[in-house]
Amino acid sequence: MDTFKIVVAGVGGQGTLLASRLLADAAISSGMHVKIGETYGMAQRGGPVMGHIQIGGETNNPQIRKGEADVLIGFEPAEAVRRGVTYLKKGGLALINTRKTDPVEVVSGMRLYPELDELFGLLRMVTDDIRLFDATGIAEEAGDPITTNIVMLGSIVESGLLPYSEETIVETLKTGLKPQFLELNMRAYELGKKAYHSL
Amino acid sequence: MSHPVALDEPGKRVVLMGNEAIARGAIEGGITLAASYPGTPSSEIGNTLARVAKKLGFHFEWSANEKVALEVAYGASMLNQRTICPMKHVGVNVALDILNPITLRGVKGGLVVVSTDDPSQHSSRTEQDNRWLGPHNDVPIIEPSNPQEAKEMTIFGLELSEQVKLPVLLRTVTRLSHMRSDVELGEIRDLGRKPEFAWDEFSYRVAGFEKLFRRHPERHGKIDAVQEVFEKTSFNELKLVNDSKFGIIGVGFAITYVKDALESLGVEDKISYMKLSTPHPMPAKLVTKLIESVDTVLIAEEVDPFIELMVTALSKTVNPDLVILGRKDLSFPREGELSQELVEAKIAELTGAHYDDPSRTEIEAAKDDLMFDRMLTMCAGCPHRSSIYALKKAVKTVKGDLMNVVVNGDIGCMGLAHAPPMEFEDTYFAMGSSIGVSQGMQQLGVDTIAWIGDGTFFHAGIPSLQNAVHNGAKIKIVVADNAAVAMTGFQTNPQMGITATGDKVEPIMIEDIARASGVKFVKVVDAYNMKEAEEAFKEMLEFDGVAMVISRRDCAMVAVRQMRPNKPVSYVIDEDVCSGCKLCLSGYGCPALMWNDETMKASIDTTLCMGCDSCAQVCPTKAIHRSDA
User: Fold this and answer.
1) C-alpha distances in angstroms, B471 versus B4, B313, B460, B468?
2) For B383-562, which CATH class?
3) CATH architecture of the region B567-626
4) Does the interface ipTM go beyond 0.95?
5) Mean local confidence (pLDDT), B205-216
């Protein structure tokens, strides 16, 4: 099979790395090779985080070549655009959480957060398939905004683009998440799936 | 759920990070002791070992610093035990003082030092290339290219170390340490060796001082023997293509760029190339086979022209007309990581292969115009933020102007004091250096504040503190004590009263060390009580002698974790009272604060706020209060 390539973009603390890992574990369960390249520097202190996931195929380097990602999962609008314009292939799916995380430059009044229309305008030069939703709002509905990553995961599964079955990912969630938080996360997952159809 | 590195299931495939794979390699190789000091991008090696050490029955510790870690590991090696000592690249600078004698005196049990280098400085103050330590110390250097190989080469390193009686330095780069891929597990070995001191190899009393002391000839013999091993190891690969006049050497992780580029350009069967996983000592005979057969060689390596210079020297005798391209000749940039695009474009240029540059230059430029950088900042509720705010107020009162004092900071989260909106830090250099450089300035009459964290103080702050007291330099020291080695992911330090593997021990308090070192003014304050902290800082600044304030409060991330499953009580802003002055945003800048353009008032993101009360103390109109008050 061709390598299936996903770029995950967000901010430290949003659970992007866990989402990448779950997507990779599901690939392994399906008998596919997988590579994840993670760029986070000192991201725990509010910096940008990016994950590159390559499923199947025989590439050696964990970084996806520019313009070749099949899917962009954006946990934060500006971070989604930052990575999407570089890595997403022409016409690829961009699934984006619209909830903003203000950087310190904005909090302290040094500059304004760019207008979302302008930001997404840049991404539209790469793809028409941009799907926006308040994933954090849905996570709050599920019970905790910390499950935003699982809402995003539910949506991307529902897109039908992933190269493995939904059963595999559900099984991965059940074995990969802490049992005491499983119910909460499964609720977030189901709400994420449902949300995809209204995007 | 147990960690996959602890699984005793040979043949099973699991997803491992490069760093976890190194930890697994050490476990499969039969280590009985591991010692480390955390530092990005190395920390996950130690984190992983710490998690499984008790279960698998080996000793793991976060040592006080890298030098101590290597000394502890060497102690085990002299008892014929296998051991691993991971650290970040600049940590090896700290450990170098003991690494050099180890290479001279030799090892008994296999000893692998891991150096995780950081090209492009993702999370470091330098991208120093530690392969130079190879020729500097006669230490063999091995460089894996993926997690599976990182695991196998860790085992190889332990075996090689034992075979030739030298420590082996396994070098990674950030991209490898932090990549994940599926790794096939091997068998966990229990060597069952009794820890016995090898008297005849290390003891002055038994072996004799003279025999042990002048060892350079032995060391040279050993490194030559290593070169013979490297000529034959299957971790190196040479693919010669008939009639190819162009060859490539990909060193360590850089081979991944080379292989992908050759395939992508469709020239994999037309060009000779070599995968070189053992940069020092470079296997000269193997490299000769490649460079004899071509007119031009391109060398892809991270990050200095190390192999490029070795090949240049070698070519003088075997192919004097060879054209050598790489980092030094600027075929690749002299600094920073390589990328798929850089390597592919260069190979295309040299071979005439067709290459489409995938860069969207115009959109990228428009993005850069529009977008912020997202600068690093302290977390919501970080006690360092309230400490700095209080310190600034005290300095203004006592010194008249914030510029009347040089603030020498240090490594760690508190080092972010330079960032807006606090902007109250002038320098930071190396672990613990805040105190030493402050003393040098103070000795010549320039007022300073040494601004240091608790983890950093234990790492390298104690000798410089005692030096300042001894030399009568009246320096002022603020220890931003958040009871955590937070920047690298919450490892332990001696003040925490708990070891890396969870044993309760007697904590060693910073104030006790300071008092025992002769510091006459030592005060401990609560970082969240900004009035109290400010008063203590004022007293410190006015004190005639070395003075220290320890501003203490648990790291906000730790505090929130410890509250679970409960959530912190957040604060709210009373819009009727808020004057819209923005001081909480522009002067304090906690990430939980927001500005509402419609109401022209500040507000608080209750999902981020952890209820520290600091912004309420900053607000001049007292508009901020607990949400349940």
Assistant:
1) 52, 49, 18, 5
2) alpha beta
3) 2-Layer Sandwich (3.30)
4) no
5) 93
